Fold this protein.
Amino acid sequence: MMKGQLAGLMRQAQQMQENMKKAQEALADILVEGAAGGGLVKVTMSCRHDVKRVNIDPSLLGDDKDMLEDLVAAAFNDALRKAEATSQEKMAGVTAGMPMPPGMKFPF
């Protein structure tokens, strides 16, 4: 490999690293909402997996504790899946054109 080609690859890798850092920082500001029980339980989290809010409809507060716990877990998992999907979409734009190993997910 010629010296110029290597320098070009290094610049490209550095640019991709900077773009990835910016994209990861932006993910902290993107919020997704997961829901369960027909929207009676909602979990809002960032795409960096920080839970920002849990909303439980007051009608559930007198109900079965186990059911409420299951609904909270389901809403959390729904939000997590949405956060992962959004993260993958955003990071795909950063890594477009770069060969990535199979199964590699972003952010790391």
Remarks:
- Residues 65-95 form the longest helix (31 residues).
- The longest strand covers residues 31-36.
- The radius of gyration is 20 Å.
